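Protein: Urease accessory protein UreH-like transmembrane domain-containing protein
Species: Neisseria sicca ATCC 29256
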Amino acid sequence: MNYDITFFTLFLLGFFGGTHCVGMCGGLSSAFALQLPPHLNRLGLIVLLNLGRISSYVLIGLIVGLVGQIGISLDDTRWLQNGLYIAANILLLLLGLYLAGLSTAATQIERIGRPIWKRLNPILNRLLPIKSVPACFGVGMLWGWLPCGLVYSASLYALGSGNAVQGGLYMLAFALGTLPNLLAMGIFAAQLKTLLQRRAIRLCAGLLVAGWAVFRLAVML
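Structure follows.
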């Protein structure tokens, strides 16, 4: 893989996936923001929530990167990495079409993480409403495990990296791409949701993601 281009791809996936983030995580981000203790700094806690979420994404990247590293060390060939690269970009294409409102196929992939989320959700409920700084960070970390096709697509890149550290860095690039939208969602929830749910913006963002996936596949072939 070309690491620089992959970092850029994942950052774009997180950023242009903002329309999906608003639909999927925007409600949670707004709800968490409304539950923050009034005696603590609101902006600081919103940042802390997102730092917890980013920490979980990086942890996921480290885990799947390590799995890929073990797999590649057992079978020293390129076919596994190439297969994961193709799968990641096909999923990226499907997500782009979903963001554009042209297909719902990508939503089926989010079912993969539901068993894990069912186990984590009761823990999240015990931390709500947020009453302290540690609880705020904990809620953010649990939030990072919410089933999400965007996260799964980024995770495939991390898995295909064949390296734990590289996988963590890939997920960090993706997380940084999501950060502007979800930070703004916590602060300007109503205004941002209205903007990003406009049909023209969803279509443009989705087609950009899908077009980038097609380009990546064409370059490989």
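Remarks: The first helix runs from residue 3 to 16.
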